[in-house]
Every structure is written in structure tokens, then in C-alpha cells.
Amino acid sequence: MLEIKDIKVAYKRTQVIYGLSLHVDEGELVALIGANGAGKSTTLRTISGLLHPSAGSIQYRGADIHKLLPEQIVRLGIAHCPEGRRVWPKLTVEENLSLGGYILPKQRVLEKMESMYAHFPILKDRRSQLAGSMSGGEQQMLAIARTLMCQPSFMLFDEPSLGLAPRIVEQVMDIIANINKKENVTVLLVEQNANMALSIADRAYVIESGQLTLEGKAADLRQDDYVRKAYLGK
């Protein structure tokens, strides 16, 4: 479904990604784990068109997308739930959701919004509340719902557990797993909480200094001695 071949990515003159290749098959939940600064977020930003690789290619359903604009990529069915939630703080919950569905016809936006309220009842209760006044966990729910508003077939999640209490982290990870298994949305998950990511993923990659160093079934990587010591604290 998504195939990245030997991409190189730089911020201005600073190289961040060095010849990275990975693939995500339709229906999978794949985790990308690594330390801060390893290149995880850069990889997602490149897939979604916010950055463009200086070399290599990215294909989605067999078509090259690495030169497309973010809006074009969204219209292909790829949606990016960013690190730090990035809700519009001075807009209401409802306004945030409406903007998330900007590529849909108006009537479909209203229908999709009602669907999000059914999935996330807390958002229905807060529909007229300014997003910036919500708790971190509520904002993360809003960020996920806003991303789902455009009806993606492929979702990129960037550090969804960042700054959340442990019980909220578990709730968010359950939501992501359900999006994948029950909503049939393919997922590429970037997450520093490696143990939690590996617990819900089918497969995983380890990225270090802009290069992939390990890959395999998530269950196998949870038992790998290096992964356990470096990322699971075991």
C-alpha cells in the first residue's frame, strides 16, 4: 500500500534521513520506534508532503507521491495526526472538526461529524468549547477525530501519547488499534513509548540516526535483547 524506497531528507543543509526504506501493507498497523531526533517525525512529514526527499521515492497504491503537495496527498486518502495535537485552540471543537473535513461536501461533513460524536462522546459534550481550554487527553481525542473527518484509508500518527497520563495513553492506544482493526484504516504509528506501540502493532521498524536498524514482527521485537535494553527499559 505504501512503499518508501531509499529516501534521503534534509532540513536546509542538515541531513536527517539517510537512505530509508520501509513498506506498510494494506490493513497493517506498523510502528516506527526510536529515540528523540532519530528521524521518526521527519519520516511522517515526508510521507504527508510537508517535506520532500532529495533522493528516493514514496509510492502509495503504486503511484509516486513524493513530489505532491500535502492537500493532494490528503485527497488520496493519507491523513496525518501530528505530534503535539496541534488543535486550533481559539476555535471550538465543532469548528476544528469541520475544518478536518474540508475536502468533503458540506452534507458529508455534517454526517461525519455526527459519526465522530458517536465515537467520542466527550467531544459531543464539548462541541461548543474552545479547543485550547480542553485537557491534553481531550485535545488528543479531538486531534484524532479531526484527522478521521477526511475519511482516510491510511493514517499517520506522530507521538499520540506525548504528555498524557498513563491511563489516557492506554485509552488512546486502544482507539488507534480500533481504528485499524474495526475501521479498516491502515496505520503507521510513530511512538516513543515503544512498549505501548509494540503491544498494538503487527510489525515494527527501529530507526536510529536517520537509518533503519531493525525490523520484524512487533511481538518478536518486544523479545529482542537490544530493543528491550534500549527502548523498553528491561
Question: Could you characterize the architecture of this molecule?
Answer:
The chain is of the alpha/beta class. The protein is built from ten helices and ten strands. Helix 3 runs parallel beside helix 6. The longest helix is centred in the C-terminal third of the chain and has 16 residues, at 166-181.
Structural class: alpha/beta
Order of helices and strands: EEEHEEHEHHHHEHEHEEHH
Distance between the termini: 34 Å
Question: Main sheet: which strands, in order across?
Answer: 6-7-8-3-9-10
DSSP, total strands: 10
Oligomeric nature of the chains: single chain
Radius of gyration: 17 Å
Largest sheet: 6 strands, mixed
What is the mean predicted local confidence, pLDDT?
Answer: 92
Strand content: 25-35%
What overall geometry do the principal axes of the alpha carbons give? Answer: globular
Uncertain runs with pLDDT below 50, 5 residues or more?
none
Helix content: 25-40%
Count every helix, treating DSSP H or I runs of 4 or more residues as helices.
Answer: 10
